[in-house]
Amino acid sequence: MTENSLQKAREFEARYGPHIPDGERPVFHATPAIGWMNDPNGFSLYRGEFHLFFQYHPYSNEWGPMHWGHLKSRDFLRWERLPVALAPDEDYDAFGCFSGGAVELPDGRQVLMYTGVRRGHNADGYLQDIQTQCLAVGDGVNFKKYPGNPVLTGENLPEGGSTIDFRDPKIWREEDGSYRAAIGNRTGDGSGAILLYRSEDCFHWEFLRTLDRSCNRYGRMWECPDFFPLDGRQVLLVSPQEMDPEGLEFHTGNGTVCLIGSCEPGSGDFVRQHVQAIDYGLDFYAPQTLRTADGRRVMIAWMQNWASAGAKPSNCRWFGQMTLPRELSVRGGRLYQVPVRELERYRGKCVTYTGVPISGETSLPGVRGRVLDLTVTVRPDGSGPCRWFCIRVAKDGPYETLIRYRPGDGVLKLDRTRSGLPHDIVHTRKFAVRPGDGAIKLRIILDRFSVEVFVNDGEQAASTVIYTRQEAEDITFEAGGSVLVDVEKYDLIVD
Fold this sequence. Notes:
Number of strands: 32
Oligomer: single chain
Distance between the termini: 42 Å
Number of helices: 1
Largest sheet: 6 strands, antiparallel
Number of domains: 2
């Protein structure tokens, strides 16, 4: 890379991105101008607008030397594209500008903290990636890398910490004006840990403590941490590598975990009290949150899975999208998440049904489409047990995406086997849900290339990418037995 790397990326993006028609993209979900997108970075509020940076390789739809792409929005749903924010062009980040966070300084500047990756020799003479933490300072559009980079190196690690796996700083400002950064690291036993750092000015940092460790149970290396207070609890979000499954709660490979607990008075030590998956679907990784001006905690994530990231439609000019931003809360010791309330502003034509009996496969007039907000409540009809209930969306001939529920064992399955991507990847995911009084409520958001399901007012969420042709707009309901359903469907419309 050269000193002109940033300008080159900006020119490439500006030249080729506009050639991709809007119809080839989701309506509300964030996508790159062109090329490859993965982890959200620097999801933050700056000068009254929501900024979203992301891991970016503009030159192809494959992972490559990491840049920072940049979007902003006033409502989380309509995104304005801004020029590439960072490119790898220094010795300390020559192999990529990796994930990180952003914060607004009191003087109005915006600071980005990111992981710079360079190649170096270890004690045995072998080449390896060295990860350090770096800063860039700007005005919300243009950024200059800090002359004192890197600001955190191996010298700032606790004993046994790895310089190879030291990444993904999430940065925030405390009420007393000081700054904190939560950073992922691998410890001497090969497992992951989240390290907490402190700064008075956002430029000079010191190690405070280890927040938590995986101890090789909830995965090994912990990536992309976030740490914040919510509803009287302290929440730690991590994205583990090399996860082992635990029943239907966690799946094999790269996953996401929410640890809910409290911080000990005086010491500040984090004590975990509850552990759960963040998203139970097929495509969800590396979530980040921000706090809005009205006090909401909002989360966004990469809606993709590393195990299937190589499976793409032919001739696609962009790859990777973000989830719908979600409002978080803690209820009964669990994490809840629902779509941001701003989505309701885009609701159009409404179709409702109450107490419709369902047995064989049934369609309902007016209930179809690929960009919509659909809520379905399924409840017993009193005639006997129902073995299963199924909603088919994005359906047309052989194509369909299934949301299937078995009341007997409380298991919900998301199945995209026939969703337009003929690759040998994981296409189904099952997870346990808790029905209330024998009923289950499912809110389903469709946006052309994705399905997001929110169970029982946000107690669980499940996300998946689909590639079914856009003409597949049918929706049907079917039961193995008989049930009653209530349906509320809105078209989602851009002005």
